Amino acid sequence: MVTLLDIWRSPNREKMFYDTRFEEENRALAEQLLLSGRFKKVRFGLFADFVSEEEKVQFSALSCVLEDGSVKVVYRGTDESLAGWREDMDMAFTYPVPGQEYSSHYLELAAGLLDGPLDILGHSKGGNLAVYAAMNASDAVQARINTIYNMDGPGFKKGVCRMELFEKIEPKIRKFIPRSSMVGMILENYGGYRVVDSNTVGLLQHFPSSWMVEGTDFAYLEKVDEPQRIINDSVREWIDCLSEEERREFVDTLFEVLEASGVSDLVEFTQDYRGCISRMLAALQNQDPEKRRQAAGVIRRLFQISGQTFRSETLAWIQEKLEK
């Protein structure tokens, strides 16, 4: 186990700032953590990081031991790799995806090596992995879990949240989403979550650095922003109306086109986005006509459902105002 100071003194320190898009923010955060009385004595270890295009998996986790002896098992969300984004979309028709299975194995390993009460947590896909790992943990490990923190993580394929395994650990889950959450509301979700205010807009609210705090807690709101709720309802209805085979074919086609850009992650994509888009458009033209037709039909259904949902929600809102 190492401290933040040990990590900062490492000759490999610069690897933490690989993503140039957020280099300035990440450096400032690292420096503040080093100065923090709360975090500078935390010990970190059991770091696991694995990406495989073949397995369509991106997995990363580490464990932290606090001064009081408690253990925090932390799962990372999606990184910039295409494999990570592919795995996210596979969740719409596959259960479990490889990353979920890795999260379960990792929790058992960490719990076997580290004593003390456990908290399981993660952001984005990491929040989903935290829930999956906890619900599939052995009885001995589940008995040590105090809380499962899901920070704007997506839900599960339909039916998972009604499984006995899930219902057993549901009381321990604490889910937090920003006021315009989309990632955290996609797929089938369980009921309880708290809405956090944010100082930015749209999908940028997914980054926890934008979440507002009051004292030692988040600044909470009563509900998700109404326009975003309508969008989320439309996306869920769209996914539900597609068969598993349609979902699979759509995702396969999408990533065939993305892979034609010749990059392996989104950082490379942003560095040459014009060339990448040109290669993607060429790949789209070379797709089998039937695949193109099916993909277009899937996208058309999304717009149809979105339009219908917007009209019905707007009429309901007007009716409510008239009645008042």
Word description of this protein:
The strands form two sheets. Strands 1-2-3-4-5-6-7-10 form an eight-stranded mixed beta sheet, sandwiched between helices. A two-stranded antiparallel sheet has the order 8-9. The chain is globular. Strand 8 and strand 9 (217-218) form a beta hairpin. By secondary structure, the chain is of the alpha/beta class. The N and C termini lie far apart (61 Å). The mean pLDDT is 85. Helix content is 47%, strand content 16%. The protein has helices at 4-8, 23-35, 82-90, 98-113, 125-135, 139-144, 164-169, 226-241, 244-259, 266-271, 273-285, 289-323, and strands spanning 43-52, 57-65, 71-75, 118-123, 145-151, 173-178, 194-196, 213-214, 217-218, 220-221.
Beta-strand percent range: 15-25%
Poorly predicted tracts of residues: none
Radius of gyration equals: 21 Å
User: Which class of secondary structure composition applies to the elements?
Assistant: alpha/beta
Shape category: globular
Please summarize the sheet with the most strands. 8 strands, mixed
